[in-house]
Design a protein that fits this description.
2 copies of one chain form a homodimer.
Chain A lengths: L5 E12 L2 E8 L9 E2 L2 E3 L8 H13 L5 E10 L8 E9 L2 H7 L5 E4 L10 H16 L15 H12 L5 H11 L2 E7 L8 E5 L13
Parallel strand pairs in A: 1-6
Antiparallel strand pairs in A: 1-2, 1-4, 2-3, 2-7, 5-6, 8-9
Chain B binds a DNA duplex (27 and 27 nucleotides) through α5.
DNA sequence: GTAATAGTGTCTGTGAGACACTATGGT
DNA sequence: ACCATAGTGTCTCACAGACACTATTAC
């Protein structure tokens, strides 16, 4: 049964840089598609990994040095057409990190490319990235997900800009703050920031916030 | 690599009956958990199934006789703890059918049990059902998904009742019709229905409707 | 006529967008 | 003083909930 099914995990690691959603790609070390840019991925170790999420974490740590960013199962891609080695399964995850954290914590030499205009990638990795981008954009509309693209502490202006990039339209400052206030998912992070002009209040995500903030019924 | 990983698909087939979301369960023919009630499921045939969705369709057809209901990938459950045979993967799907269609099209002898109060099921099937119920309820808030629980042609009163059951609260008739009207995802099905009192307009889902109807931004 | 369900009209409060305003820091 | 960014107040329009109303069938 299931003879020769290749089972892997692949991770779409995304960050926000230059007001754009960008994806981490690595040069593949092995065939198939050796030396081509592709998503970080690897085989599941049926013995060592307690589940596929753990495998995704391990792959991310091994290949990029990054530990415990936001990680969520995306979709499972399957079939005989997606991998030259034969019928395969890829359980995919997406991860979000702040770009500063990525550059400091991460050891490896990865490429960061804008998610919307990628070159042709091996396997069905273009489709996987498209799925991830759709998921992140959709969830940004009704959740606190964008917070995970920021540093731990951030200003409301930064948060608003993040939402704007993900949603693809400008938001009104007053309405945005009203909404954030009433949803009450941010905790004042005590300190204010010293940078250039008037300092701003810093916030962080309330620990244990349900991701979903709206329910919005028909 | 991946030696001995068991790969299956499992399907949560749901319908609406007696104003409740109900789940189709079958008596298992084989060990493990022979003769216990469980979700319809089976091995993926790496050769024959073109992908996991096709495997889910095949399993559904083989085990219940049902063909081409609404089918959507739910989540992939993995790990060493969920199946006594060892480290396993279950790519799960959920399916929706009208209960009349289910009873007529389906050949097998299945059990139909209310999704909210199931007995203890083998493997992690209780968790899988919980996932499916959550997904259906959540999607009902912003999509046309509930239509798939009705027969092809249905009245607005039936549709409203379906939404009410899934969302768990009553809706205002006038508001509901206004919303349906403006979202324009229903096509008058020409005929009106003859039953008891005043006949009602029948509708069907517009072919090729995007499931997502609202976007609702922060 | 009545009963029963289908379908519509209208009022009102809430809340989002728009936008002007004030506040507080650096220089 | 001025500039830049942070943060607030207010108006208006759209829209969802509430609810009463009319319409059309069977009997």
């Amino acid at each position: 049964m299931n003879q020769g099914i290749v089972v892997t995990v692949d991770v779409v690691l995304m960050t926000l840089k230059d007001r754009r959603l960008q994806v981490v790609l690595l040069e593949r070390e092995r065939d198939p598609f050796k030396k081509r840019l592709a998503l970080p991925g690897g085989y599941i170790h049926g013995g060592a990994d307690i589940d596929a999420m753990a495998a995704a974490e391990r792959v991310l740590a091994e290949k990029t040095g990054l530990v415990s960013p936001y990680l969520e199962q995306l979709y499972t891609f399957t079939g005989g057409a997606r991998d030259p080695r034969g019928w395969s399964i890829s359980i995919t995850y997406f991860a979000l990190v702040n770009s500063a954290l990525l550059e400091e914590q991460s050891s490896a030499n990865f490429k960061l490319l804008p998610a919307e205009k990628l070159p042709r990638l091996p396997f069905d990795h273009n489709q996987i990235v498209a799925f991830a981008v759709d998921r992140v954009r959709a969830k940004s509309g009704y959740s606190a997900l964008p917070c995970y693209l920021l540093p731990q502490d951030f200003t409301l202006a930064e948060l608003q800009e993040t939402y704007e990039v993900l949603l693809g339209n400008r938001l009104d400052k007053s309405s945005f703050r009203r909404k954030v206030e009433e949803l009450a998912f941010l905790l004042p992070a005590g300190v204010t920031q010293q940078r250039s002009k008037r300092p701003a209040q810093l916030y962080r995500l309330v620990a244990g916030t349900e991701l979903r903030l709206f329910d919005r019924a028909i």
